[in-house]
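Exercise 7 asks you to align residues with tokens for two separate proteins.
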Amino acid sequence: MNIRRVRIGAAAAALLAGLALMAAGLGVASGKAASRPRKSPKAASGAAGKLSLADHECNHFGSLSCPSSSSGGELSSTDCRLDDGSYLDLVQFSGSAGQTVTIDLTSGAFDTYLYLLDPTPVVMVSNDDFGGTTNSRIVFTLATSGTWTMGATSLGANQFGSYSLTIQCTSAPITTPTPPGVPPPTPTPVGGPCVPNATTLCLNGGRFRVQATFASPQGQAGIATAVSETSDTGTFWFFTPNNLEAIVKVVNGCTFNQRYWVFAAGLTNVAVTLTVTDTATGSVRTYTNAQGTPFAPIQDTIAFATCP
């Protein structure tokens, strides 16, 4: 069964303008070999004026639905055309905040490229190749409820043919909003040596245990997922693995001022509590970021007076 088309006129132009104004960093997905052509980011100037909206077949949406649905479509010269010469189908679904969606775009006729736009509409994420193929996949946790839009297109200009588009949605988690002034959940204290796990970084030779918690204005709260980068440095994500929220390192500054140093930075404005424990002495340092405040860099060069 082909994707059901719904005529909506000017709304399609708004979605296409969202694609035209997308951030340059979203224009190329990871995993592309250097020898392959790269899809250029949509120009920040010109917006929908640089898109071919004249054809009557352009202004429509397809429709898929959660929790799971799949259908076929076809790129043709009557579809909406982006400023890089590629043609595009717009397919919508109704999503809820907290749902994680997995979207697959596959084709044997062309090298696929996939966009996901939020209800405003703004491009949130894009993908070119996935799993060593020329097919595309997006896995993303929805931040807001409403009508989300998938853009099914090709990597190169003037590529046509049939494709399959599939969406699978997890259930949105049931959350209780965090009351004002109430801190987010805290990790269970752990004594003894640091043991790395999904929520724990063990830094500076494994001596320092680092954990983080978060709480969003929408009521999403929990313990951050830890990702070790080096022996001294790690990162955390809150909502989805491809969206890192904070980075932290613990440095041995004993030869300079008889202290261990803690440095951290964040790419978030939700409430965050970062806890660093010296497992050799039990000393703890806690750093917080207030709700709605950009995460300020932490450069604590007197954090732990526990040398050596």
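Second protein for Exercise 7:
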Amino acid sequence: MDVDVDGAPNAYGPSGKQTLDILLNAHYFNRAEKEIVGYLTDEHGKPILQGPEDPFPGYYISQTAFADIRNQNEKDPRRYVDARKINYVVRGDLARRRGARVGDFVSVHSRRTGKSAFAIVGDTGNPTGDEGSLHLLQDLGYPFHDGKNDSVEKPEIVIRFYPNSNPTHKFFFTQTELNEAATKLGLSRDFSAASGTNY
């Protein structure tokens, strides 16, 4: 699982800015010739900058597939899921075919650290789905700080999807809110029953 920082207001920015990721990673498949999917651009393909009232003035506006439907301003960085504060996973093609929707709840478990966490399907754009937000990887006990080089290289992350578990597209600004909502739905972070099995 690679670290995804999309949605964080300091994810990307002009040269010289202290960012959480490099600009190449904002392109589809991390290839320079592919389209930019990590931040907003204008009709000429130039990055749109945050204004003086935004969290990181002068930085790019990094978006996620899941957004606050109550906020219709696409240029507001607060409209998107902040990878620094919220646990999310990227939905891959397999999960999509099996009914997972953007905004659905998931449970995530690390077989290495033994920790589990609630998260949501917060983004798309990687057919493999092998990405999770910076906050998620930190919550699972990994000492990661950004999306530049950090990655879980072994197949030790397990994701349990709950299709159609967030039909109203409830948006979360804190992980505490997300955890409370998942708990109220009766969702589980317990992976002990699957111990010793091949996930």
